[in-house]
UniProtKB/TrEMBL annotation, chain A:
Name of the featured protein: Peptide/nickel transport system ATP-binding protein
Extent of the signal sequence: none
Superkingdom of origin organism: Bacteria
Entries under SUPFAM superfamilies matching the protein: P-loop containing nucleoside triphosphate hydrolases
Organism of this sequence: Paenibacillus sediminis
UniProtKB/TrEMBL annotation, chain B:
Major localization class: membrane
Residue ranges crossing the lipid bilayer per the database entry: 12-34, 79-101, 113-133, 195-220, 240-263
Classification of source organism: Bacteria, Bacillati, Bacillota, Bacilli, Bacillales
Residue span, ABC transmembrane type-1 domain: 73-263
Coiled coil: none
Family that this chain belongs to: Belongs to the binding-protein-dependent transport system permease family.
Superkingdom in the source lineage: Bacteria
The protein's name in its UniProt record: Peptide/nickel transport system permease protein
Gene3D superfamilies named among the record's database cross-references: MetI-like
Record key words, sorted: Cell membrane, Membrane, Transmembrane, Transmembrane helix, Transport
InterPro entries documented for this protein: BP-dependent_transpt_permease, MetI-like, MetI-like_sf, OppC_N
UniProt subcellular location: Cell membrane
Organism of derivation: Paenibacillus sediminis
Automatic annotation (TrEMBL), chain C:
Gene3D superfamilies: MetI-like (1.10.3720.10)
Subcellular location: Cell membrane
Main location: membrane
Lineage top rank: taxon: Bacteria
Keywords: Cell membrane, Membrane, Transmembrane, Transmembrane helix, Transport
Membrane-traversing stretches: 7-29, 100-121, 133-156, 176-195, 234-255, 284-306
InterPro entries xrefs: BPD_transp_1_N, MetI-like, MetI-like_sf
Name by which UniProt lists this protein: Peptide/nickel transport system permease protein
Record keyword Aminoacyl-tRNA synthetase present: no
Coiled coil: none
């Protein structure tokens, strides 16, 4: 299996009125060709900033450190112009809000064609042909008509299909999907997930799927990274994660999913909230909310331990980690 | 206190406030600052260029331009205060009542009248009103004040519309607080910020409008020194005495800039919709 | 279509109120209008003739409706001093003012667009600060003083451009254009400042929107993102401002035309004011307010062209 994306010691900081805050703090992961990697965590854990760092689309007060190797090349070394030929061409992105992520004043067709004309150097007629076939591929009825329509004439689910068609435009090697179904109705969510799986099977593209929803992870992903407060706390394949979750945070997330035959009267929740980037605890960042926290957890930050292909950042597994 | 600190950090706003403070000082101490009587004519010194004796030179009647500019500050500050005062006296109560009681009067009489008033080019309206009432400072103020009133009606009404639906207003009404008390004790104080911003910016326009009317000969009448009428008199002297034009105009520019800077600064602090 | 029809219907009450206000103006003259117009030494015959001509003998409501009836037929009355129909006077004066308006807008757009876009894109840099401060300065310069300064520099000191000498365009295009440069710059500079500030803040709102990020994620460079995606969305409030600017501009031209001796519409008003020709003043301000209403109507309809959502009746701000 070839690795198409390797992220090494990614650190993303922002200059703010309260000084410099570090939102992503030393994240490592990689994505193989044809693989779907899930990145899970609550809002504020740094998942979206990680994806925007890969696209180099941070606001001007953001600064990226570390290495992001795409096809073996560190994209942090690319000039802005070289980066533009990567965006939308080799790495495409699908955003959370289909309602606001499309330009309200341009037709659907024009928005899909834009990247195709730019990167694939097709002429207008060929680009139109491709845009219509993409609209058909994402399951849009009346593709020719919708090509001429404006986003406000479409429903949320349809707009997200347009976003997917847009992302597929230049056959990217990697699609980053940032909470692609969060803003949609439950029934539409399933359709969009099915569509994304179909796209992946047909084109062999890799997907980096960012979500807070473990249900989506179970359905879509091959491997999973759990992020907490700007760090990776657990990484493993999807089956292991659900059979044998290790980090107390992951276990907490799983216990807060309602189940069909649930007999519990209340769902278990994780008490407290994610710490603010400029008020990080001294030891383990999860310790203040952890039911199993020990003395050492409040003192010293744990390392990301290697446990038989299962990575976990927790003092509970320190001994197990040493033995291996 | 926090607002004051925030304002001090807004450099341009502070510069604006300082300019206006300077204007007030000059206006109050005009007698002490001006070296000559602004209306004293001196036929030996007609149209002399700026010198140590006459800082800004003299005009065609031999009057000291610097002294006239200094005394012009009085007219200018009066123009700003009176015209905007009149506009607020008309606009704020109408806006309050109209927005609070809504209904036919608000929708079809007040707001459509505001639309109609704002269709008249401001200076043309002021020109027409002061033409009808007769030339003179007081009438010019009335004309400008009437011209500004619609903007105050609009902004006050807009504030009342949002505030009247707030929970604490609803709560006050539900326990039987009288309308007048709600309007003046609860709504007006909370609607004040945008009105103050609008007033500051309107003062800038008021000074320009007064100068414009005086320049056209409809505002302040000679020999009272006003920057606008000084420009009117200097107009025929453009080629022989450019300094007679430069200094009064510079004074208008500086003071208007002061009010604009202050208004802009206040907007950045007081108006949550404007980002830093 | 529904949007356009509704908008058209809304202008009717406004125009009606405009006519009432204009009509009332002549009745705001303290005392007897005919006496004020003619002065104390007028003969009783002349006085009575003017009262009859102005319809002052009739009840005020009758006066209004007979005046309105004539106005609707294009009859704005006869100038008291020139004894020519007011509509003829206005038609003679409009071309120069229209030319001046177009020139002013050209100057304003040529300065405001590059400056506004640059300031928004390079937000927080010296380019931004310089142009924002310059715009505040530009808004604070009285345009008649700027006009005089331009005359001193370009016409008196250097004789590069004429300070007067307007001729109709068709009579002598070169001379006409040369005479128009300074007036257009004098009024256009101030308007450009207003427009630039508006464009900058509107663009800043738009560039932080999701769809702009989408455009960047497609690999568009900054210029194409701004010009192709952000600018058009930022235009909606800017177009409104330009519509509202027309009213201020027509007022400002009163003074510009006086300074540069351009026989335009604004100068007609000033001249009529000093000649106490109230019938002409009345006709001219009615025409100016109607022009403003029409321009604003056109601007609102232009929205529908810019923003497809308005046609669907959803409104510009979603």
């Amino acid at each position: 299996m070839t690795t198409i994306l390797e992220v090494e010691q990614l650190k993303t900081r922002f200059r703010t009125d309260n000084g410099v805050v570090s939102v992503v703090d030393g994240v490592d992961f990689s994505i193989h060709a044809g693989e779907t990697l899930g990145i899970v965590g609550e809002s504020g854990c740094g998942k979206s900033v990680t994806s925007l760092s890969i696209m180099r689309l941070l606001p001007p007060n953001g600064k990226i450190e570390g290495e992001i190797r795409f096809n073996g090349k560190n994209i942090l070394d690319l000039t802005e112009k070289e980066m533009q030929s990567v965006r939308g061409n080799e790495i495409a992105m699908i955003f959370q809000e289909p309602m606001t992520s499309l330009n309200p004043l341009h037709t659907v067709g024009r928005q899909i064609e834009e990247a195709i004309i730019l990167h694939m150097k097709l002429d207008k007629a060929e680009a139109k042909k491709r845009a219509i076939s993409l609209l058909k591929a994402v399951g849009m009825p009346r593709a020719e008509e919708i090509y001429e329509e404006f986003p406000h004439q479409l429903s949320g689910g349809m707009r997200q299909r347009v976003m997917i068609a847009m992302a597929m435009g230049c056959n990217p090697k990697l699609i980053i999907a940032d909470e692609p179904t969060t803003a949609l109705d439950v029934t539409i969510q399933a359709q969009i997930l099915d569509l994304m799986r179909e796209v992946k099977e047909k084109t062999g593209t890799s997907i980096m799927l960012i979500t807070h929803d473990l249900g989506v992870v179970a359905e879509m992903c091959d491997r999973v990274i759990v992020m907490y407060a700007g760090q990776v706390v657990e990484e493993t394949d999807v089956d292991t994660l659900f059979e044998n979750p290790k980090h107390p945070y992951t276990i907490g997330l799983m216990n807060s999913i309602p189940e069909l035959d649930d007999e519990r009267e209340y769902l278990d929740t994780i008490p407290g909230t994610v710490p603010l980037p400029h008020q990080m605890p001294k030891g383990c960042r999860f310790a203040p909310r952890c039911s199993q926290a020990m003395a050492i957890c409040h003192e010293k930050p744990p390392e990301l331990l290697q446990l038989n292909g299962h990575k976990c950042r927790c003092w509970l597994y320190a001994e197990e980690g040493e033995q291996q | 206190m926090k607002t004051v600190k925030k304002f001090l950090r807004n450099g341009l706003g502070v510069i604006g406030a300082l300019i206006i403070l300077g204007l007030i000082v000059v206006a109050v101490f005009a007698n002490q600052i001006a070296p000559y009587d602004p209306n004293a004519q001196n036929y030996d010194q007609v149209l002399s260029a700026p010198s140590s004796e006459h800082l800004f030179g003299t005009d065609d009647l031999g009057r000291d331009i610097f002294s006239r500019v200094v005394f012009g500050a009085r007219i200018s500050i009066e123009a700003a205060l009176i015209s905007v005062g009149i506009a607020m006296l008309i606009g704020v109560p109408i806006g309050l009542l109209s927005g609070y009681y809504r209904g036919f009067w608000d929708e079809w009489i007040v707001m459509r009248s505001v639309d109609a008033m704002q269709a008249f080019p401001f200076l043309i309206l002021a020109l027409a009103i002061s033409a009808v009432l007769g030339a003179g400072f007081g009438n010019a103020m009335l004309a400008i004040g009437i011209g500004f009133a619609p903007a105050f009606i609009r902004i006050t009404r807009g504030q009342v519309l949002t505030l009247r639906n707030m929970e604490y207003i609803q709560a006050a009404r539900s326990v039987g607080v009288k309308d007048a008390r709600i309007l003046f004790r609860h709504i007006l104080p909370n609607a004040l910020n945008p009105i103050v911003i609008q007033a500051t910016l309107a003062m800038a326009s008021g000074i320009i409008a007064e100068a414009s009317l005086s320049y056209l000969g409809l505002g302040v009448q000679p020999p009272t020194p006003s920057w606008g009428s000084m420009l009117n008199q200097a107009q025929t002297l453009l080629s022989v005495a450019p300094y007679a034009t430069i200094y009064p105009g510079m004074a208008i520019f500086l003071v208007v800039l002061g009010f604009n800077l202050l208004g802009d600064g206040l907007q950045q602090i007081l108006d949550p919709r404007v980002r830093k | 279509m529904m949007f356009v029809v509704r908008r058209l219907l809304l202008t009717i009450p406004i125009l009606l109120l405009v006519s009432i206000m204009t009509f009332s103006l002549i009745h705001m003259i303290p005392g007897d209008p005919a006496r004020v117009i003619l002065g104390q030494e007028a003969t009783p015959e002349a006085y009575q003739a003017l009262r009859t001509e102005l319809g002052l003998d009739q009840p005020i409501v009758v006066q209004y409706f007979s005046w309105l009836g004539k106005v609707l037929q294009g009859n704005l009355g006869i100038s008291i001093t020139d004894r020519v129909p007011v509509s003829t006077l206005i038609m003679q004066r409009l071309p120069a003012t229209i030319e001046l308006t177009i020139g002013t807008f050209l100057v304003a757009i040529l300065i405001a667009f590059p400056a506004g876009i640059l300031a928004a894109v390079r937000r927080g840099t010296w380019i931004d600060y310089t142009s924002t401060f310059a715009a505040l300065g530009g808004m604070s310069i009285p345009s008649f003083w700027l006009a005089m300064m331009l005359i001193i520099y370009f016409a008196v000191n250097h004789q590069w451009l004429p300070s007067s000498g307007y001729v109709p365009f068709l009579q002598n295009p070169t001379q006409n254009l040369l005479a128009m440069i300074l007036p257009c710059v004098a009024t256009g500079l101030r308007e450009s400042a207003v427009l630039m500030r508006m464009l900058r803040s509107s663009l800043l709102d738009v560039v932080s929107m999701d769809f702009v990020r989408t455009a960047k994620a497609k690999g568009l460079n900054e210029a194409r993102t701004i010009l192709g995606h952000a600018l058009r969305n930022a235009m909606v409030p800017v177009v409104t401002t330009s519509g509202l600017m027309i009213a201020g501009l027509l007022g400002g031209l009163v003074i510009t035309e006086s300074i540069f001796s351009i026989p335009g519409f604004g100068r007609l008003i000033v001249e009529s004011v000093f000649k106490r020709d109230y019938v002409t003043v009345q006709g001219a301000i009615l025409v100016s307010a109607t022009l403003v209403v029409i321009v604003n109507l056109a601007v609102d309809i232009l929205y529908a062209v810019i923003d497809p959502r308005i046609k669907a009746g959803k409104g510009a701000g979603e």
